[in-house]
Amino acid sequence: SSGINAESQEVRRYLSDSFEDVGCFLLPYPGKKVTSEPEFKGRLSDMDLDFVDGLRNLVPYYLGESCLKPKQIGGQILKGKDLLHYFKSYMAIYQQDELPEPKTMLRATAEANNLAALAAAQEKYVEEMEKVIRLRFRNKI
């Protein structure tokens, strides 16, 4: 029990340190097709109407023009392509049969952080190498 409590505290501390603002939005039960059919593909028509109504409130709440501001994780502003790394990591976890443990989500966030940093480093490397090549090419003419 104390191990679980310590793990929960670690996750809470990590979330508080990583995000400027942490909130939640409680949605109703999405429906039997969503939770029990492995073939579920995300169609709104397969979801309970109360859940779809909840989504119609949630999406503008988080993605509405007045709410949009740069997303940050660990104090770093994320680019759209960085968010893709996070979404892919989280989607891989949620496609499993069971709900993930908080520790698993923590690992996924760390993995996505690493992938985003790697992509940024590769982009910077290519940019700098192109400058070097252009400079050398210009000097040979």
Descriptive account of the structure:
The chain has 141 residues and is an all-alpha fold. Helix 4 (80-94) packs antiparallel against helix 5 (102-140). It has helices spanning 2-18, 32-36, 49-63, 80-94, 102-140, and strands at 72-73, 76-77. Helix content is 65%, strand content 3%. A two-stranded antiparallel sheet has the order 1-2. Strand 1 (72-73) and strand 2 form a beta hairpin. It is built from 5 helices and 2 strands, in the order H-H-H-E-E-H-H.
Short structural summary:
The chain is 65% helix and 3% strand. By secondary structure, the protein is mainly alpha-helical. A two-stranded antiparallel ribbon has the order 1-2.
Outline the fold blueprint.
Blueprint: H1 2-18, H2 32-36, H3 49-63, E1 72-73, E2 76-77, H4 80-94, H5 102-140
Antiparallel strand pairs: 1-2
Helix pairs in contact: 4-5
Main beta-sheet strand count, sense and barrel state: 2 strands, antiparallel
What is the overall number of helices? 5
Order of strands, widest sheet: 1-2
Mean pLDDT: 81
Q: What general form does the structure show?
A: elongated
Percent helix range? 55-70%
Residue stretches low in confidence (pLDDT < 50, at least 5 long) are none
Strand content: under 5%
Give the helix/strand class.
mainly alpha
Element order: H for helix, E for strand = HHHEEHH
Rg measurement, Å: 21 Å
Please give the alpha-carbon distance between the first and last residues. 72 Å
Number of DSSP E strands = 2
